[in-house]
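Final report, Chapter 2: Outcomes

The project's central promise was a pipeline that accepts a single protein chain and returns its three-dimensional structure in a standardized token representation, suitable for archiving and comparison. That pipeline is now operational. To close this chapter, we reproduce one record exactly as it appears in the project archive, with the input sequence first and the structure output second.
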Amino acid sequence: MLETEMKHFLSYCRISDFSKKSIEALTTRLNEFKEYLETDPIRSSKEISYRHLREYVAEFKAPSIHIKKGRVWTLHQFFHFLTLNGLVGENIALDIPYPKIEKTVPHFLTIDEYNRILQYFFKKAIDFFGLRNLVIIMMLGLLGLRLGSILSLNIEDIDLETGLLQIIDKGRKGRTLIMPGALCRVLSQYLPIHDQKEGPLFLSKRKKRISLRTLQIIFKQSADELGIEKHLHAHLFRHTAATHLNRVAGPVITQHVLGHSYRKNTEKYAHLNPDQYAVYMKRHPFMSM
């Protein structure tokens, strides 16, 4: 009975246009929840109590703070579905609070570090794959694109005449970004030697859309050869773009470029603006004493 309800819930999520990543996360957490309930055992959602939910979220298999957050979100969604369909009287999961996650300072590359990486890829941009890698690094570090947006880009998303880039962002939202002149110049060299006129912008050596694993190998090899101790990954480049853009453009433009739905997601980069802080301290009334 309970397993059937979970299957119906996941079908509902697909019809409701939940993202593929969200459905995968919901499936993982529901399988955990089902495993936890088998220890009681419980066969119907009506037998589930608030105590069960609390124990599953906080104690089952010693979860990390991020797994706890995912479990709370899953239970909120699942019991909302059960309530809508009259399978339970109320959404008891709403009383479970999200765990508080302490804010961390985003790691980013300095201007010198990013320039070194750009120079590394520029020197290797002597063929199709070298240019491909340079374009990717520039899109990551200059525009702060998410990895999913990079992997899903198509040739027809590029308009070199206007310098515009169409991307599909988180939550399947479409956005338009202005590309820097340097990126347009590299793309003007890359696109003419592309085997196709439409379809995936970034191809692997097998002529397929480039994979996450390929990018990971590219990042690791460049970091090793440059002697950069930081672990290079797509989000590090995104933080880098956000940090340096915020210094010159402020949070409003940074929010637009990054595609943040909420200002609070952009504000974590505000304290990384030493230039604005220095100006403030010079104007502070007590600094002249």
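Archive annotation: DSSP finds 13 helices and three strands in the chain.
This record, like all others produced under the grant, will remain available to the consortium after the project formally closes.
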